Every structure is written in C-alpha cells, then in structure tokens.
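Quick start: load a record and inspect it. Here is Stress responsive A B barrel domain-containing:
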Amino acid sequence: MSSSTLCALLQLLPAMLSKVQRISLFLALVALCAITLYLTHLASSPVSHLAASMSVTHVVLFQFKKEVSPEAVRNLSTRMLGLKDKCLHPLTQKPYILSSSGGVDMSIEGIQNGMTHAFVVNFASKEDRDYYVQKDPMHQDFVKSAGEVVEKAQVVDFINGEL
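Running the structure step on this input writes:
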C-alpha cells in the first residue's frame, strides 16, 4: 500500500471513527511500519543471526610452555572461555560470540602433537569472526597475554557445512 493510498484512507476515517479509535489505528499502523522496517533490516544485515548456515566455527589449540604452572594454564583457559561475554560488538555493544567451549585434551588417539587444550568459538558470520581476530580489544589483549604461557597455538576456522 502506497503512502498516498494510506493518506486517502486516513482522510475518510474522521467520519467513520471516533478520535480515540483514529489514534489507536494510527499507533497500530506506526507499530506495523516499525516492525516491517526492523525485519527488513535483519534480513539484509550482513551480520544477521538468522543466517545460521553461514556461521563460522573457530577452533583454537594450545600447547603450553613446560615451565608454566597448572594454575596459569587454568587461568588462561578460563579467560579464553570468558571472552564470550567480554567481547562486545562495536555497533551494538553486546556480546556477539554465539557460543564458546573448551577444555583439556582427553583423546586416546595419541596424535595431539603436543596440543593439550582445545577451544571452539562460534560466530554468526565471517564479519563477526574477522572483527574478533583483527580488531576486538578484549581478544587482542588476550592474545598478547597468552604469549607468556603458550608455546604453540593452532587455529582452524570453517563455515559450517561448507565442504
């Protein structure tokens, strides 16, 4: 419905509706327009959380330095998992990491190549992952401090389902 059609209808309303009914109808139309704009924005947003098929999984493996205490390893691991709540999207200022999990290796295969801890971080989009890796100040601080206790790190990222 065009805005001119809507205006024409609104001009006919005074004769048919009371003032309270006209105001209620007007507010309902404004709300409907706002919802439509919001849904249009979500559908066109490059960081849309609705696009689960484009989500990115970020896998991080750590080998800690031999001289590092178990307490320091636990501390870094806890901080790694805590990034989920501390990393904030630059526009919304809300956490943007969808999920984060990790822990001590317990594989029986024996092909860890020295890696002792694994973490999996999920993002809604490549853009969110890129911001995390390249610009997020909380992540940047974490990476700098990790160098004190991490001997070697490996990172693999993939788009879920893209083979």
